[in-house]
Task: inverse folding
């Protein structure tokens, strides 16, 4: 007999290798990720490790949260003791931004150095396009920005991604601020159900995969008064 619980917690630096592994598992079949970050190159793993590390070391706007599953196996008459297992199954990276702050590397004219083996021109066009679109849509208005969301494939469909999203949306509503997110076709519907509306998009051609379209979405802020009166 076993019991399982899920909890939302703030990630800590010792989680970084696990979070990096979750990213690669979550996006193992994503055409954009596979094209921009080819898995047959060892430098890709290190680049993402450093990318996620920056959220804890050099991005004061970042808030990294995780879903932890804790399992407890109760002994039977043939075994003794209680076996416990703990696993991070998903994580999200939010930013809290105001007029004086922006996401590191978010300047469309100053993209990061991409890892060896990545198609730098494609990466600059795509991620630079995302940065330009967010600047155009949000200007200098304070807002919450969901930069990254990843769930282990075997745990997708359990609603854990929604928990990570709602964590940030509740803060945005508390503060009466807009929320911004970018997402591909597979997640657009989820974001729309949670109140986001597409305001722009970035499209690129992926060699071997055809065209790819990323939606740029804005969710209007709610005042505390409106949230308190919601049914």
Result:
């Amino acid at each position: 007999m076993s019991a399982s619980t899920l909890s939302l917690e703030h990630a800590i630096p010792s989680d970084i290798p696990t979070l990096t592994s979750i990213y690669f598992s979550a996006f193992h079949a994503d055409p954009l990720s596979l094209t921009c970050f080819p898995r047959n190159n060892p430098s890709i793993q290190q680049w993402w490790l450093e990318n996620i590390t920056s959220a804890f070391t050099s991005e004061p706007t970042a808030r990294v949260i995780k879903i932890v599953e804790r399992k407890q196996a109760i002994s039977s008459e043939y075994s003794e003791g209680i076996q416990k297992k703990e696993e991070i199954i998903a994580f999200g990276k939010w930013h809290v931004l105001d007029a004086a702050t922006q996401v590191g590397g978010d300047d469309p004219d100053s993209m990061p150095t991409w890892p060896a083996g990545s198609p730098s021109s494609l990466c600059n066009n795509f991620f630079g396009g995302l940065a330009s679109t967010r600047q155009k849509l949000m200007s200098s208005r304070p807002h919450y920005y969901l930069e990254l969301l990843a769930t282990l494939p075997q745990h997708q469909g359990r609603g854990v991604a929604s928990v990570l999203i709602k964590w940030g949306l509740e803060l945005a509503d508390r503060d009466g601020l807009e929320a911004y997110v970018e997402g591909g076709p597979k997640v657009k519907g989820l974001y729309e159900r949670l109140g986001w509306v597409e305001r722009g998009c970035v499209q690129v051609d992926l060699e071997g995969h055809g065209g790819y379209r990323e939606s740029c979405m804005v969710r209007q802020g709610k005042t505390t008064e409106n949230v308190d009166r919601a049914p």
About this structure: The helical segments are 16-26, 31-36, 42-57, 120-138, 160-175, 185-193, 224-229. The CA atoms of residues 52 and 100 lie 23 Å apart. Confidence is low (pLDDT under 50) at residues 224-231.
